[in-house]
Description:
CATH superfamily of the domain at 42-218: Survival protein SurE-like phosphatase/nucleotidase
Structural class: alpha/beta
Largest sheet: 9 strands, mixed
Strand content: 15-25%
CATH topology of the domain at 42-218: Stationary-phase Survival Protein Sure Homolog, Chain: A
Number of strands: 9
Helix content: 25-40%
Order of helices and strands: HEHEEEHEHEHEEHE
Number of helices: 6
CATH architecture of the domain at 42-218: 3-Layer(aba) Sandwich
Shape: globular
Amino acid sequence: MRSSWTRVVPVxxxxxxxxVACGSTKSxxxxxxxxxxxxxxxxAPLRILVTNDDGFDAKxxxxxxxxxxxxxxxxxxxxxxxTNQSGTDGKTTPGPLTVTDVKTLSSYPAKxxxxxxxxxxxxxxxxxxxxxxxDLVVSGINxxxxxxxxxxxxxTVGAARAAAARGVPALAASxxxxxxxxxPAGVKQVLSWLSSQRPSLTNGSAAxxxxxxxxxxxxxxxxxxxxxxxxxxxxxxxxxDLGQSDCNATATxxxxxxxxxxxxxxxxxxxxxxxS
Length: 276
């Protein structure tokens, strides 16, 4: 399912604020940006592989790629499905994968894999489609929330799990449905998460990075996202209400991702490598 969405200036504004704060220049498709001479403590280069399940030309992946590549000392590589593969979980394609050169909506170079979201990881890592091991895989930003029972069928989650199974830290990021779908809100949460995790993601860090997490951000019809909460994934019945968020809610019950999300909170949940 698709909806119209006009890129909102705050997406790049958030990234720009981080850029100014670090005193570094924007990276290019081929490598890391140069560090400004005024920077007192340069960040270690960070290599991020971005994928999704909506396809390389989706608005959500475009929004997060543009924000990530605006960060200092950050190399962004895009390998995504050629077509929309929503709801395909961790399915894979037997045999050779067909890969073509494409561009995102903002004309950033990408590889389009003729297969499922997990196939993008297989091609990039197992089949050496890229010549490095990424420090992080970001899968998303997905069109629609992946909470509760939806996690079991999510291709966004499937790609993130494929990366984590290969020892690469991964974040599955999704944006809640709304009118419009507020991708800038999701980008803000991804950037905040990355800022907190970056020291443990860069090569040579003594800290252990978070291996696999699921981030969901509401699209608020009125009001604003009430904050980010760490909650487990709901194990409730499949018919539980996974619909719109009430960002004007006052309830404070945040027992799981479904409850917190529907009450207007962005949710961060640990993901198991499998659903078993």
